[in-house]
Amino acid sequence: MRQGHGAIDAKRLTYVDAIRGVAAIAVVFTHLLYGHPFVGALVSSVPHAVVAVIDYGRDGVQAFFVLSGFVIVLSLGSMTVDRSSVGSFILR
Predict the structure, then answer these.
(1) What's the pLDDT score for residue 11?
(2) Residue 58 and residue 72: Cα distance in Å, rounded?
(3) What is the pLDDT along the chain (92 residues), one digit of tens a residue?
(4) What is the distance between the alpha carbons of residues 88 and 18, in angstroms, rounded to a whole number?
(5) Burial status of residue 60 (CB atoms within 10 A of its CB: 0-12, 13-18, 19 or more)
(6) From residue 24, how far is each of 7, 12, 59, 92 by CA, in Å?
(7) Handedness of CA 61, 63, 64, 65 (dihedral sign)
(8) How far is CA 51 from the centre of its chain?
(9) Cα gap 76→83, rounded to integer Å
(10) How far apart are CA 33 and CA 46, in angstroms?
């Protein structure tokens, strides 16, 4: 295991968690902007560049789920699949 900036942890991949976090935040901003009843006034008051970036927030849903699937598969890589391990996985 390497230490320092960008260290690889046996249990977590911090860069994957960071990308998942950015994707989740992008989705939140998209909902905040477009889920508001005064969306027209909000979009016209926010700079166009910000609206253009927020428009990509809907892609954050797909990115979040793909990365979450990757994390699940990675966590199961060394696991022996039997009844008790499946039960404990579901409970976690």
Answers:
(1) 60
(2) 22
(3) 444 444 444 466 788 888 888 888 888 888 887 777 777 787 788 788 888 888 888 888 888 889 888 888 887 777 777 888 778 878 87
(4) 26
(5) buried
(6) 23, 18, 10, 21
(7) positive
(8) 20
(9) 14
(10) 9
What token pair was written down for 64?
């979040």
Residue type, 61: V
- Nearest of 76, 89, 17 to residue 9 by alpha carbon: 17
pTM for the model stands at 0.60
CA angle 53, 23, 43 (to 5 degrees): 30
Comparing CA positions, the residue from 47, 13, 19, 14 lying closest to residue 33 is: 47
- pLDDT for the residue numbered 7: 43
What is the rounded distance in angstroms from the CA atom of residue 29 to the CA atom of residue 55?
Answer: 9
Do 6 and 67 form a contact (C-beta atoms < 8 A)? no
